[in-house]
């Protein structure tokens, strides 16, 4: 029974990693841009929500909803005025720019909020749990996983059911031809990064409510996100969820064996998948 | 009225002059064929007309407006549609989605209208049975048809066809010609680059010959094919 519990906890934890990864996966899938500042943007989102909660006394969920348009605008602007300028055949310039952005964000957050670790107070919700078939499940992990599902389903609907989604896929396929069809690739990329930042805000909400954070934890979240995206197969959204779940389960199982093994077990699971299926579990061809 | 007019257009890639002082007009509703040896600058000429590359000098006028300095996207919206020599479908999108993308953006049309237009084009280009298949899995003829369909979906006034009959069997070629004839009969102006001369001559009313980036002849197809210069340069026949 304890193992069932451990694995269930791991699956739910995977929801959080999938949320970290979904934005990264979206941006990579559409414009082959690896955003090394993704983790720091999640931390930035968490501070923004914390600020709103502290200043106005809003519930964290409402605060996240308020933060979303700002984060969308930030992503849109970031892409339009900075990242679009470095996108091209060479993958190095975007890596350097987003790496630089990561350093800038960490230091700006350090300057603004100090190195003290913070937490978004969620009140009784953070300890609430429900019992299903004799297994106690935290409400917060359930909410996280549910949100991850909603995000992935929502993104799939957007991709396959709307004209914006078709434009995303067409531009991802061939930006030059897309521009001959009346699409502005630069504008499409900006919208994609804006949407990725809305997902980042959701990830930030759960990150901030479930654990302590400080300006330096971004890169570690980026690693989890990366691992989830790569396990899933680059650019596949359901694969990203599967990747998150695999890392989550590996971590909780590792921790159950020996608490020191939690983080290590996640990385080992990633390496094992990479060794057996170098293109990930669901490569794009199947997506 | 001339729908398209090129005036003294030149373009060089480094020291190589690929388009050399090209001037010609295409009256509205006409079908013009362009022939010339490989490397004569035919596709470059199309790129200059669509705005994929910009001219070093000279002007391109479309519907009486100077479009020389406008972007490919703007020219597409103004009514210049194009098929590529090597089909470039969005391979992960379905055939129908390929058309939807071409028909939707920058245009003030409802989803419903767009869907209807695309369905009609699929019917006419005989792709309706393949509508929901990913474009990456199409045969060559189907890809060529998709190129044509996608160009049609942008609702062009001027349709540029780049070697659309190349590599097809005679039967396939014939069925494609019928489709192109039907489109032309509706009043769409066509400029068609083609090596398959019998295909070209069954549709076009005028022929332009390009060699080393220069226009060396333009006129009635029969007269052009008769001219000694064209036969020497293009067909390589020493008469």
Following the backbone from N to C, one meets helices and strands of chain A in this order, namely: HHHHEEHHHHHHH
Mean residue pLDDT of chain A: 92
Count of individual helical segments of chain B: 9
CATH fold field value of chain A: ABC transporter involved in vitamin B12 uptake, BtuC
Q: Strand pairing plus helix content of chain B: what structural class?
A: alpha/beta
Task: Compose a concise summary of this entry.
The complex is a heterodimer of chains A (287) and B (239). Chain A has helices spanning 2-31, 38-56, 60-86, 92-113, 139-161, 163-173, 175-180, 185-210, 218-232, 237-257, 262-276; strands spanning 129-132, 135-138. With 287 residues, chain A is mostly helical.
Topology:
The complex is a heterodimer of chains A (about 290) and B (about 240).
Chain A lengths: L1 H30 L6 H19 L3 H27 L5 H22 L15 E4 L2 E4 H23 L1 H11 L1 H6 L4 H26 L7 H15 L4 H21 L4 H15 L11
Antiparallel strand pairs in A: 1-2
Helix pairs in contact in A: 1-5, 1-8, 1-9, 1-10, 2-3, 2-4, 2-8, 2-9, 3-8, 5-6, 5-8, 6-8, 9-10, 9-11, 10-11
Chain B lengths: L1 E12 L2 E12 L3 E5 L6 H9 L6 E6 L2 E2 L5 H7 L1 E3 L12 H10 L6 H14 L15 H14 L4 E5 L7 H16 L3 E5 L3 H5 L4 E6 L2 E6 L1 H6 L1 H8 L4
Parallel strand pairs in B: 3-8, 3-9, 6-7, 7-8
Antiparallel strand pairs in B: 1-2, 1-4, 4-5, 9-10
Helix pairs in contact in B: 3-4, 3-5
Keyword list:
heterodimer; A: 287 residues; mainly alpha; ABC transporter involved in vitamin B12 uptake, BtuC; B: 239 residues; alpha/beta; Rossmann fold; 9 helices; 10 strands
Q: Can you describe this structure?
A:
The complex is a heterodimer of chains A (287) and B (239). With 287 residues, chain A is mostly helical. Chain A contains 11 helices and 2 strands, in the order H-H-H-H-E-E-H-H-H-H-H-H-H. The mean pLDDT of chain A is 92. By secondary structure, chain B is of the alpha/beta class. The chains are: A mainly alpha (287), B alpha/beta (239). Chain A binds chain B through residues 163, 166-167, 169-170, 172-174, 176-184, 284, and chain B through 50, 52, 71-73, 76-77, 82, 84, 88, 90-93, 97-98, 100-102, 104-107, 111, 150, 154.
């Amino acid at each position: 029974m304890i193992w069932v519990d451990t694995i269930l906890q791991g699956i739910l934890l995977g929801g959080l990693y999938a949320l970290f990864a979904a934005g990264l996966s979206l941006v990579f899938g559409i414009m082959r841009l690896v955003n090394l500042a993704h983790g720091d943007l999640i931390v930035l989102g968490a501070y923004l929500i914390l600020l709103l909660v502290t200043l106005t006394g809003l519930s964290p969920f409402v605060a996240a909803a308020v933060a979303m348009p700002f984060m969308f605008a930030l992503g849109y602007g970031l892409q339009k005025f900075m990242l679009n300028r470095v996108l091209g055949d060479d993958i190095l310039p975007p890596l350097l720019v987003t790496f630089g952005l990561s350093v800038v964000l960490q230091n700006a957050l350090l300057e603004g909020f100090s190195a003290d670790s913070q937490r978004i107070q969620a009140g009784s919700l953070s300890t609430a749990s429900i019992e299903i078939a004799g297994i106690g499940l935290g409400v917060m992990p359930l909410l996280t996983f549910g949100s991850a599902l909603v995000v992935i389903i929502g993104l799939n609907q957007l991709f396959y059911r709307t004209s914006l989604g078709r434009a995303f896929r067409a531009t991802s396929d061939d930006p030059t031809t897309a521009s001959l069809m009346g699409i502005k690739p630069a504008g499409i990329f900006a919208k994609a990064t804006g949407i990725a930042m809305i997902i980042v805000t959701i990830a930030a909400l759960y990150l901030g409510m479930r654990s302590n954070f400080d300006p330096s934890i971004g890169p570690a979240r980026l690693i989890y996100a990366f691992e989830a995206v790569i396990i899933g197969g680059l650019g596949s959204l359901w694969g990203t969820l599967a990747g998150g779940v695999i890392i989550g389960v590996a971590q909780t199982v590792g921790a159950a064996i020996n608490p020191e093994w939690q983080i290590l077990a996640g990385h080992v699971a990633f390496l094992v998948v990479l060794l057996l299926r170098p293109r990930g579990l669901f490569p794009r061809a199947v997506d | 009225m001339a729908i398209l007019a090129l005036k003294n257009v030149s373009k060089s890639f480094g020291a190589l002059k690929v388009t050399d002082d090209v001037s010609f007009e295409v009256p509205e509703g006409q079908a013009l064929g362009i022939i010339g040896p490989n490397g004569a600058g035919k596709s470059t000429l199309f790129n200059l007309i669509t705005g994929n590359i910009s001219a070093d000098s000279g002007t391109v006028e479309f519907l009486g407006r100077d479009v020389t300095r406008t972007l490919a996207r703007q020219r597409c919206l103004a009514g210049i549609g194009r098929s590529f020599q090597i089909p470039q479908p969005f391979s992960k999108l379905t055939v129908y989605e390929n058309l939807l993308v071409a028909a939707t953006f920058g245009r003030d049309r409802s989803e419903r209208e767009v869907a209807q237009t695309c369905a009609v084009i699929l019917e006419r280009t005989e792709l309706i049975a393949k509508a929901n298949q990913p474009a990456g899995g199409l045969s060559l003829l189907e890809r060529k048809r998709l190129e044509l369909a996608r160009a049609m979906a942008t609702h062009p006034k001027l349709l540029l066809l780049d070697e659309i009959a190349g590599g097809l069997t005679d039967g396939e070629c014939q069925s494609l010609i019928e489709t192109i004839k039907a489109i032309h009969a509706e009043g769409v102006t066509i400029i068609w680059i083609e090596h398959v001369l019998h295909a070209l001559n069954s549709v076009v009313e005028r022929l332009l010959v390009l060699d080393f980036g220069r226009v060396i002849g333009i006129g009635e197809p029969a007269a052009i094919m008769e001219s000694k210069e064209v036969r020497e340069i293009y067909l390589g026949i020493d008469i």
